[in-house]
Design a protein that fits this description.
Length: 487
């Protein structure tokens, strides 16, 4: 064991560091779902039209997804603790602004600002964990905590969003972040250690411009596909622009001396496989929350709060199995956890295809949620670890950002793709079953959801195949390369 690792085991603040990072991670994950349930109330208060309501969510995801790579690099170069603090304070201010927004424009702007600061915060948080924990068993536990939050946070967001909207005001769905972020910043000043990349710290400006614009166009193109269809002119235009910009970006990264996204980060097979796996998981899982939430509220008639609580078994499963995964990871390595985990989660999604407007929540939804969450917990924890496998200190932030970016892009792609699938299946079913009369729409909509679940399951099974062929590190390799980010 190296001296660095020995010193690290004696550092009494490392678990407190994890606590601070965990708070910030929870806040970022919550914010991707907490506003979903608050939208109807915010629409009435601020006079937001149906056409514009998507911007409550999209303003956040667009800014977050397109700026993550830059955010990761800024943390590497300027200091991860410093940028972590800037992210927290900025996030607190943007949330407060959203909480007191008097117009829809101000609400959308505050959500975009939240996304900007989240793009600084998320990569810095993961990079801090990677640099702070160098002992394999401890690092697995630390990533276990972050993985559990990433997996269960969205469901917690739905519960918190429902509770605050029903008993206080939709404004608190934003305002609640401000005291949490300020508390995390105060604790971070004391317990988080500064770390930054050594060597050449110049910015790759052409790379920044092409990557940010390319990721923005890609996310916006998928969003347009979800709302206006794949054949609409804006969808095709933005996706075409995205492809051109991202090809130019890769060409730039091959030539510049200090690239924004060094190709060595993604061409290493374990990290590359992790990002691809993360993209597929993001696409498959995001749709589950979306369509199951609609089924519970529109078809079964659950209130927003009740439908939030209906996701609790998923959160519970993630938390329980995250603990098991973090114990097993140093013993068996990542692949024996991730591949069966994705297959399990896919089976859970396939079980959801049995729902109809007449089936019960406890018999048809709960078993699926438990199977899915147990599988996903076995994926999230090792995936976070393999995405940072053997990465140098210089690239820790940008490798962390790449994991977040692939999840964001996956979520946008999944929503766009599966919305189309569900809508087409619903229309076809309704046209073919006119004899059902008034009952046709609930059955047609549910049929649309179940077809989307089949596609989601197929995505997760595809992810299992990707990880089976890409991931080739065993537990020995994890042990040897842990702490590589410190040297």
């Amino acid at each position: 064991m190296s001296k660095t690792v020995q010193d690290q085991t004696l550092d009494p603040t490392r678990w407190r560091t994890l606590f601070v990072v965990a708070i910030s991670q929870l806040m970022i994950v919550l914010d991707s779902s907490i506003m979903n349930i608050a939208i109807p109330s915010a629409k009435i208060d601020l006079g937001i039209s149906d056409a514009n309501q998507q911007w409550v969510i999209t303003a956040y995801t667009l800014a977050f997804g397109s700026l993550l790579l830059l955010g990761g690099r800024i943390g590497d170069y300027m200091g991860r603790k410093k940028i972590f603090l800037v992210g927290l304070i900025g996030f607190a201010a943007a949330s407060a602004l959203g909480g007191i927004a008097s117009t829809q424009g101000l609400l959308f702007a505050s959500r975009a600002l939240q996304g900007v600061f989240a793009a600084l915060l998320a990569p810095a948080a993961l990079a801090i964990i990677s640099v702070t924990f160098s002992v394999p068993s401890e690092r697995a536990k630390a990533f276990g905590v972050i993985g559990a939050i990433s997996g269960g946070g969205a469901a917690i967001g739905l519960i918190l969003g429902g509770t605050l909207t029903q008993y206080a005001s939709w404004r608190w769905c934003l305002g609640v972040n401000t005291p949490i972020a300020i508390l995390a910043a105060i604790l971070a000043i004391k317990f988080v250690h500064e770390s930054k990349a050594s060597g050449d710290n110049t910015y790759d400006i052409p790379g920044v411009i092409t990557a940010t614009a390319g990721l923005f166009s890609l996310t916006y193109g998928f969003n347009e596909a979800a709302t206006k269809g794949w054949s609409s002119t804006p969808t095709i235009a933005f996706l075409a622009i995205a492809v051109v910009l991202l090809i130019v970006f890769v060409a730039i990264e091959k030539k510049v001396t200090n690239p924004l996204m060094p190709l060595r980060v993604i061409t290493e097979r374990n990290r590359g496989g992790s990002y691809l796996g993360s993209l597929v998981v993001g696409a498959g899982l995001f749709s589950m929350f979306l369509f199951l939430g609609l089924y519970l509220q529109v078809i079964l008639g659950f209130s927003p709060l009740k439908s939030g609580f209906a996701f609790l078994p998923f959160t519970a499963g993630i938390i329980v199995f995250a603990g098991i995964a973090s114990q097993l990871l140093p013993k068996v390595g990542p692949k024996p956890l991730m591949v069966p985990g994705l297959i399990f989660a896919g089976i859970g999604l396939l079980l959801l295809t049995r729902i109809t407007p007449e089936t019960a929540y406890f018999t048809h939804v709960v078993p699926s949620l438990l199977i899915m969450s147990s599988g996903m917990a076995l994926v999230f924890i090792p995936l976070t670890s393999t995405s940072l496998h053997g990465v140098s200190n210089h690239d820790t932030g940008v490798a962390s950002a790449m994991l977040n970016t692939s999840q964001q892009i996956g979520g946008s792609l999944g929503t766009a793709l599966l919305n189309t699938v569900a809508a087409t299946a619903t229309t076809t079913y309704a046209a073919a079953n006119t004899e059902l009369g008034k009952a046709v729409m609930p059955f047609a909509m549910t049929h649309g959801f179940t077809v989307a679940f089949k596609f989601s399951a197929a995505l997760l099974f595809a992810g299992a195949v990707v990880l089976f062929f890409f991931i080739n590190i065993g537990k020995e390799s994890l042990v040897e390369t842990e702490g590589a980010g410190l040297h």
